[in-house]
Give the backbone structure.
Amino acid sequence: MNESMSDTPATPAQDYRDTVFLPKTDFPMKAGLAAKEPAILAKWAADDLYGTLRKTRAGRERFILHDGPPYANGDIHMGHAMNKVLKDIIVRSQTLLGKDAPYVPGWDCHGLPIEWKVEEAYRAKKLNKDEVDPVLFRAECRAYAEKWVTVQRDQFKRLGVMGDWDDPYLTMKYEAEAAIVGELLAFAESGQLYRGAKPVMWSPVEKTALAEAEVEYEDIVSTQIDVAFEIVECPKMPELVGKFASIWTTTPWTIPVNQALAYGPDVNYTLLRFQGREFLVAEDLLSSFWARIDSQKDADSQIADGLSGVHMLGSVLEEAIARHPLLAKGGFFAKPRPFRAGNFVTTDAGTGLVHMAPDHGEDDFLLCKANGIEPVFAVENDGRYRADWAWMGGQGSVIAPKLNAPDGPICSDLREVGGLLAASADYKHSYPHSWRSKAKVIFRCTPQWFIPMDRSATEKPSPPSGGEGWERGSPAETSATSASSVPPLPNPSPPEGGEGLSNNPTLRGIALDAIANTRWVPAKAQNRITAMVEGRPDWVISRQRAWGVPIALYVNRKSGDYLRDPAVNARIKAAFETGGADAWFTADHQQLLGPDYAAADYEPVNDILDVWFDSGCTHVFTVEARYGQGVRANLYLEGSDQHRGWFQSSLLESCGTRGRAPYEAVLTHGFALDGQGRKMSKSQGNVVDPLKIIGESGADILRLWVASTDYFEDVRIGKEILAGTSDAYRKLRNTFRYMLGALEGFTDAEKLPVAEMPELELYVLHKLAALDAELRDATAAFEFNRYARALTDFANEDLSAFFFDIRKDSLYCDAPGDPKRRACRTVLDILFHALVRYAAPILCFTAEEVWGTRFPDAGSVHLLEWPEIEAAWANDDLRMRWELIRVLRTRLTGEIEPLRRDKIIRSSLESNVTAISYDPAEAALLRSVDFAEIGIVAQVEVVDGDAAVARDAGDSVSATDLVRFEVSKTEYEKCGRCWRHLPEVAEDGALCARCDAVVHG
Ligand SMILES: [Zn+2]
């Protein structure tokens, strides 16, 4: 920006360098952030910046950004960094606005991933977790979580994130565990809990139910089999008796628990004969079925040979009955397999007939339930068939490939009885896996605790009705003992079909209302979460694990009802407050139950809560606990995956207990991808480590990157992108450095009233007012990419390339008391105060360094408030006039450039300009200002061109195109001090009148 001053004159008549007021500052051009930032952090800690802010802002309007808890496990990654920086930018910007914006960071500490890590350590030591005292095991989980909370806390702090790091919230703190159990008991007391059976995503490896958010889909190859069920009754079409219904499945392991067959009532079926038997298949699927049964038929047989010509609609199967191929096993297998109409039956794949295992499929469960067929719970926690199951009992896990293989035990047994029509291990499909263990998950019916979505909160839970409740099916009449471990359970009442929503709202209805009353940023997120809540099933809140908050309920051993006594619940909560959740596992239950109940009559529930329930309660033990009952967070801010996770669990928790959302607004950001837009993964080797970036370039670079991205979508980060960010940072830093230098020695006494300022200064103040409005607007919209861009554009284009460029002559060479110089420095001072504040939320370290350089004793920049920009500075007439001037200036610069390139002139100061204007208005505009000063040239002569040219051009050209610049080398000599070429300079290197006056008084 200072190129014309840095050339040394070829032969100076006299050296006037010492008489020029060059900018002076100790603020270094090179940032050295990686070394500097830790010292700034230490100072903030020593000065208790966060605590000071809480004191000075007490009583002001509050803005609560409630932190979503990361999981206390492993070093932070780019997703964490992006999330926390964005939060910090918002908290700091709200603080800058003068609000009291506390930030309480938190961690999710319970749950499977930590338990899994502790178990891994056990396995390495050949220890069996099931033999360890649960309280001891939980203590190890706690220690593991604590370790990572400490590690992540230091890493988050290093990002510059300001918050209550000395007192974060942890879901495993006793007060949190007590609050979580209190919320659970609130659901229980209002009747919004039920224990039911339902197929849930189940991980046999981790031995627990999983939430959708804990599952990821991967392509796998499965065994596909076709199995024949002989039809034994068919009232609507008796000739089908003795024929075979063929079903197709990719989970052979579900055949041992088959209980029914489903057909499409409107599907067209036909019979296909081969090897002496006839098989019922949907007509649309005949050829694919024919292709699969290759090994069963003669080499030269054709499909046409087997076609029966008999056609029928599926509805003929009404009331039909088949029998299981393994009926010889007796008991469960000898029972009839009824045909039932299923609206989910399609002819996309398979045979058009679907085998139903209500234990292991949602459609199966619902269709069977509607027909009085209950699950049998044959598959245990670890994925094995229970030992007493008549077929496959005690065999290996159902997810084991060998159990399902074409030559495995299931296929072999089916083949032996003639039930297997085809089996091949070649079916490719997408299948759910546990994101933690990467093992396959299954659908499995288990007794679980649910929060109903469609039952009114005020409605009493339906009483257990013996007849409707499920009972544990038994594979053989002799194994009645297996049913004793689970008491009969109350049956969940069916959804009410939306009836009476307004008077008697359901959790789903309340949640949907709350979504509509919440501000979603970006707005499109509202549709996403609305669709999710509209379509979601009841919330399964139980997990069969140890590291979590227990579902501290007592179930009556006789009735299956859970106890709903506020006095008992109060004792449970109190026990948790003093002893944490461990209190449940070591409790004297008679003491908790009190004198009114006998402990022998009640079974304490040993399941723990889904961790999403824990984190769904953070608003209770963080926002309400710290700021008062009924206080809501102003903002939740997380990645877009949290529509399924935390945004939703918090919403449902709060709607179920408080009837409204726990937040006023929710901001969703995208994910951090690599420089090419690919997902980061260790195996790809494309992980960008935020800690490495901070170590090399500093946290402010990372923060500026976050602010500059369009974070509402997925964002990219890589070497080139960061190089661009560093470049943008450098320019901003230089802008501050220039201002610091130019303001050296500036005092209030030098200030010039705005009314006395030149038009250029007024125009810059107008631009500042416009910037201020834009930044306020961007802050309110949480659009910091707009904020960062407005700030950097202003610094680069309006200041460095324009205002600073034009005014450097006045700054360096005018007398200190010259009004123009005073006006410039006054505006620079205003700009400095504004820009350092604007930059502070994003470049939190650099702003502190800039501020401290100029005002070393004034405290932290982060204690300051939003700059006071006078509304009167906005001046639209001035804006329009100066926008035209700037266009003309840019055009003139373009005309000078070739002369510089051809070495005709060395700097623009040597330019002699003739401006030929074909438009009187433009001519008047050019004459109204010192355009030589604005263009940084020696002289400008404005000449009126032929007005007819403008008339002929009409509206086809813009006004500024009606000015033509002619540039030549000036004849004037150069002032030895200011290097301007002026008529009064007698010889090269002598002084101009202004400089002479400054130098010689
Ligand atoms: Zn001069």
Observations:
- The pocket of zinc ion is lined by residues 813, 975, 977-978, 980, 991-992, 994-995 (CB under 6 Å).
- Residues 784-813 form the longest helix (30 residues).
- The chain has a mean pLDDT of 88.
- The longest strand covers residues 215-233.
